[in-house]
Design a protein that fits this description.
This protein is mostly beta strands. The chain has a domain of 36 residues. The strands form 2 sheets. Strands 1-2 form a two-stranded antiparallel ribbon. It has a two-stranded antiparallel ribbon with strand order 3-4. Strand 1 and strand 2 form a beta hairpin. The mean pLDDT is 84.
């Protein structure tokens, strides 16, 4: 995702675009060079999982995650306890 940095002297944040380049060598000895600049947004959630668990009982459940890139990736998961903490 694109990082946000504070502007000089203000509390406003500005997105800092990713910079890259793309180089194409051509068979005739010339080449094409493209400079790239872009902003990546956060991924959209595909859904939520809600589970109820009895206190002091172990429960396992499987979370299926589709890997759209054909290489190993890391994912982050979080959970939230609702209600009062008894």
């Amino acid at each position: 995702m694109t990082k946000k940095e504070k502007k000089d002297g203000t509390d406003a944040e500005e997105e800092m675009p990713h910079l890259g380049s793309l180089f194409f060598p051509l068979p005739n000895g010339t080449a094409l060079l493209y400079n790239l600049k872009g902003i990546a947004t956060a991924p959209q959630a595909e859904g939520t999982i809600q589970e109820s668990v009895q206190a002091r009982k172990q429960k396992n459940f499987v979370v299926n995650v589709r890997n759209w890139a054909k290489t190993t990736q890391r994912f982050e998961a979080s959970w939230k306890v609702e209600g009062t903490a008894d």
